[in-house]
Amino acid sequence: MGLAHGDGATEVACNLLHPDAVGADQVQERVSRLAAGLGVGVGQGYFTDLSREKVVELYLQAAQAA
User: Fold this and answer.
1) Phi-psi region of 8 (alpha: psi -120 to 50; beta: other; left: phi over 0)
2) The predicted structure's pLDDT at residue 50
3) Per the record's keyword annotation, is Transferase included, yes or no (predicted)?
4) What is the pLDDT of residues 3-50, one digit of tens each?
Protein backbone atom coordinates (compact mmCIF):
# COMPACT_ATOMS: atom_id res chain seq x y z
CA MET A 1 0.00 0.00 0.00
CA GLY A 2 1.40 3.42 -0.86
CA LEU A 3 0.64 6.93 0.32
CA ALA A 4 1.94 9.90 -1.67
CA HIS A 5 3.05 12.84 0.46
CA GLY A 6 3.06 16.43 -0.81
CA ASP A 7 6.85 16.75 -0.58
CA GLY A 8 7.52 14.25 -3.37
CA ALA A 9 7.91 11.35 -0.95
CA THR A 10 5.86 8.17 -0.94
CA GLU A 11 5.22 6.09 2.15
CA VAL A 12 4.96 2.35 1.51
CA ALA A 13 3.22 0.03 3.97
CA CYS A 14 3.11 -3.74 4.15
CA ASN A 15 1.67 -6.34 6.48
CA LEU A 16 4.12 -8.97 7.65
CA LEU A 17 1.85 -12.02 7.60
CA HIS A 18 4.60 -14.50 8.47
CA PRO A 19 7.36 -12.50 10.20
CA ASP A 20 9.12 -15.70 11.25
CA ALA A 21 9.59 -16.58 7.57
CA VAL A 22 10.19 -13.09 6.14
CA GLY A 23 11.17 -10.43 8.64
CA ALA A 24 11.08 -6.67 8.51
CA ASP A 25 14.83 -6.53 7.96
CA GLN A 26 14.46 -8.61 4.80
CA VAL A 27 11.66 -6.36 3.53
CA GLN A 28 13.74 -3.24 4.27
CA GLU A 29 16.73 -4.70 2.41
CA ARG A 30 14.67 -5.70 -0.63
CA VAL A 31 12.90 -2.34 -0.88
CA SER A 32 16.23 -0.52 -0.49
CA ARG A 33 17.83 -2.63 -3.22
CA LEU A 34 14.92 -2.15 -5.64
CA ALA A 35 14.80 1.59 -4.99
CA ALA A 36 18.56 1.97 -5.43
CA GLY A 37 18.25 0.34 -8.85
CA LEU A 38 15.83 3.12 -9.76
CA GLY A 39 17.94 5.88 -8.23
CA VAL A 40 15.43 6.43 -5.43
CA GLY A 41 16.34 6.92 -1.77
CA VAL A 42 14.69 4.94 1.03
CA GLY A 43 14.23 5.85 4.68
CA GLN A 44 14.24 3.46 7.62
CA GLY A 45 11.06 1.46 8.21
CA TYR A 46 8.95 1.58 11.36
CA PHE A 47 6.26 -0.48 13.08
CA THR A 48 2.72 0.61 13.91
CA ASP A 49 1.65 -2.44 15.90
CA LEU A 50 2.90 -4.71 18.64
CA SER A 51 5.28 -7.59 18.05
CA ARG A 52 4.06 -11.14 18.60
CA GLU A 53 6.22 -11.33 21.74
CA LYS A 54 4.68 -8.14 23.15
CA VAL A 55 1.14 -9.42 22.53
CA VAL A 56 1.93 -12.65 24.42
CA GLU A 57 3.56 -10.69 27.24
CA LEU A 58 0.53 -8.40 27.64
CA TYR A 59 -1.84 -11.38 27.53
CA LEU A 60 0.08 -13.20 30.26
CA GLN A 61 0.13 -10.07 32.41
CA ALA A 62 -3.64 -9.66 31.99
CA ALA A 63 -4.25 -13.35 32.76
CA GLN A 64 -2.20 -13.13 35.96
CA ALA A 65 -4.07 -10.01 37.07
CA ALA A 66 -7.48 -11.67 36.55
Assistant:
1) left
2) 82
3) yes
4) 999 888 889 888 888 888 998 899 999 999 999 999 999 999 988 888
